[in-house]
């Protein structure tokens, strides 16, 4: 008979769970409030969500202080992993969520924000993503991924427009397929190594000299397909433009940032040890994914007539650009990934929020979609401030100096050159030049064309509430003044990445 094992609370290190549990508790509180008192104003739910996000942020800050002193922390039977990658990605997730949730105060026209379930699902989603990045246990990563994904599918469907249900079903179908691929890949790695922890898998495979390389490649193929769907890497990107189009503009912007940083962190943990072990096949495939995703998405974006779909393909191209960091696999490249995504978060969320301003209930005659280029024609005359801010975001996405993403692109290309990927660096620079065309195309419409006049002589004028103006203002300030913050931010990121061993 086995003797009972005493487990002390101190040995569990429950502090590692705190950042993930806070949003989950917040979600349950919202559901309880609605259970006892329904039909409350959405302002209360926005306030509760922000309160718990701030608590989450300070819990992460405390964890980062301990990490700076003691290094990587394990907890809850070594399932939870708090290292630099987990902390950096959770900061991005929480801060982007703080910028997103006040948008619920902007207009009553989006009915999903009147449901308390929307805010509860939102907090459950954040908790899921945090569990996903704060572990190297494949089962917990899967649970976090599916918790976040199921909440996100429902939130998209709650938008309740013509294309929202279609978008939710497509996202659910692709997500289910990706989950199947992930499960099968995890099963292969478990069969090979007897472990579901990425660090242990790496140690066992290295210990036997990758003797079962054929089976390793089978597992890698399934994992690549799974993360290809989540990161919308070509050819697994087909769901992304339709899902973005069927979502609200702000939700599309949020989807282009938060789910992808979570997937990037897991991909970094899983694929970089294989890259460093000299699995040439994986390096060639990742190289092809990066180049094809960047280039094909840019070419598709060139021919779009709808600005929202253009930004969707643009986001796919940026994901391919950042995927290069996992291929390069150096500390500089991994630091560049986080720097790029932080700067991208401000710019892209601001861009999609500007589309939210420009949403119309009824399309004018001759206008094929809610966000056609014609709709932005002559905006400098009808809404000059909106035109200037949108142009600012476009110039940043194009990577023009001195705006935010220029520094992200510069550091990413520099890491490619330093890592010996000179040809890749040239392809990245060329794709940045191609992307400049479709971003500048929108600026030409806004500044150099006459406003489109409706049959009754009306022209489109953008309108925004104070909450939306505040969020867009924060994004614009972050985009313009990034030059001041790049060096200290990069030092902060590099210290966390280096101390995590990546």
Protein architecture, described:
Strand 1 and strand 2 form a beta hairpin. Residues 455-459 have low confidence and may be disordered. The chain has a domain at 11-105 and 111-158. The protein has helices at 9-12, 18-36, 42-70, 84-100, 116-133, 138-157, 164-193, 198-207, 213-230, 239-246, 249-255, 258-276, 280-302, 307-328, 331-357, 379-382, 384-398, 404-418, 422-448, 466-480, 482-499, and strands at residues 73-75, 80-82. By secondary structure, the protein is an all-alpha fold. Helix 2 (18-36) runs antiparallel to helix 3 (42-70). Strands 1-2 form a two-stranded antiparallel ribbon.
How would you summarize the topology of this molecule?
Layout: H1 9-12, H2 18-36, H3 42-70, E1 73-75, E2 80-82, H4 84-100, H5 116-133, H6 138-157, H7 164-193, H8 198-207, H9 213-230, H10 239-246, H11 249-255, H12 258-276, H13 280-302, H14 307-328, H15 331-357, H16 379-382, H17 384-398, H18 404-418, H19 422-448, H20 466-480, H21 482-499
Antiparallel strand pairs: 1-2
